Amino acid sequence: MSLIDLALKIEEFSVISFDFFDTLFIRKLEEPESVFDLVGEKFKIDQFRALRKRAQQLAFVEMHNKNKKEISLDDIYNNFHELDEDKKHAVKAYELQLELDVICPNQEMIPVFLKAIELGKKVVITSDMYLTSHYFKESLSKYNLPQVPLFISADCDATKRDFGDIFDIVKNEMKVVAEQILHIGDNQLADVDKAQSKGLSAYHYQADSITQRKNVPISESIVNGLTDSRINSFSNGSGEQFAYQYGGPTLIGFSQWLKKITINDKIDALLYLARDGYMIKKYSDRSCKDDVSGPVEVYFKGSRTSFILSSINDTNFNEYIPYFLSGAYELSAHELLERIGVVPPAQHLLHALGFAENKAIKEISYDNIYNLLNSMKKDILKVCRANRRGLHQLLIDLNLPDNANIGLVDVGWKGTTQEAFENAIKPFFNYKVFGYYFCLISNTSSTKKSMLDSTTVGEETINKVYENRVAFELLFSAPHETIIGHVLSNEKVKFIEDERQDKARSFFAPLEKGMSEFFDIYDNLTFKIHHLPEDNVLIKPFVDYAISGMWKQNKYILTMQNFDAWSATKNKTFSPGQYI
Question: For site-directed labelling of 212, which of 49, 237, 347, 563 has its Cα 20 to 30 A away?
């Protein structure tokens, strides 16, 4: 039975009973016992998880000795003999607060809960838990959900899991026969078998997105729990869902690494290069909004193209002809010029010279292309000079010291953007330039640092990341087209975008929304639990997904065509998976 069918099914019953944990509410942790790890971390108690579980076992022994059927949190801490009374009180209070902090409504089940109330059904919550009804009232209140009758094992001294006695209490308190009750829960034994043994109807809720492994490291538990807790709130296969699940964690992991790695280099200005640095800068603005001691940070609308153009002059022009032709095999002659911001001759003139609009560069002799570029040399150099002036002004506007340390933030691969930037500014500035990258496929420079390289994850993984680099570039992007120039206009720098493309904004908007939502939830939770997951754990889900090649079948990614602006052409359409 689907959730849609369930919403219809509830009309047949007088009382609708919901399990609480992993049904009506879910934790933002993959493993519930990760709460114990967080408590131990807060109070610096070694082996707290084991001690806490032992206290719970002793509470069960005491329960049986007293002929009771359930324990409470008080019972557990009364058997926590390793703590003195003051510490018991503080630790117990913190555990209870954490249990409130880590839960959130299950976006799949809450609509069913509210629908049942709307239909006038008697809605109750029935839960096996050592926490008392006060906790459940607080949970509902926290998310502005209606208060309903609570049947909690710690209060009722009866459970679902053992003999199903709590269902008898529900039946008697609600004054209905068992056949008029539908119970909804995730546990086959407690929520289905025991409910049915008492004559109730039962719906076995199974959430595909929720995983609960045992003994999970705390960082993994947080990252996976945050993903699982919200993934079903997005349309399946949407850009928001993809970005929330993979983009948010990846960008935060890289940002956390970046903050640590830049400290030792005493960076004066951190330039987040377009478009790769857009979301990293956006997250940095959130996480460092109160930090005035760090470097100047700007989203720097410069690119490998604009930096290379800034480096070209009359003397070295011929050396850059291979660059002009790189990745151009499917382009027409006018596209070859347009992608560097040069206005091409009228198409009828190009056509007369043998450069038809639908004729690709690969079909034209090298000599003819070489002659075309040389005939356009004056126009190309004019664009190069304009870019050089614009770049100079951008750096002057930063008001940096003469010997400043500048950091460039980029997704990476070979570090050629950094080299182009250094070449472009060398005649004018004495800055030392550092590059900070998500991944470099090779590196022998002390001024280039990457989160992933062969020394951290091995050469095989690096090669696989590079083979699937488009997947990463889709996340490390921005809601604007590729920057191909920065020129002075009325004493201000104007940024030139590749006008041949017009899809970046609409494609990236859902990705930005999904990542921003993850940023919100991540910051809120980590602030409350006082724990930041490890950087490598945050990026691992997407690295694994990307190198598996599964991204090439992602429904949302498949909607993007001609993502790589440098090689984009009207003559041929490329899907992201075709870029190798």
Answer: 237
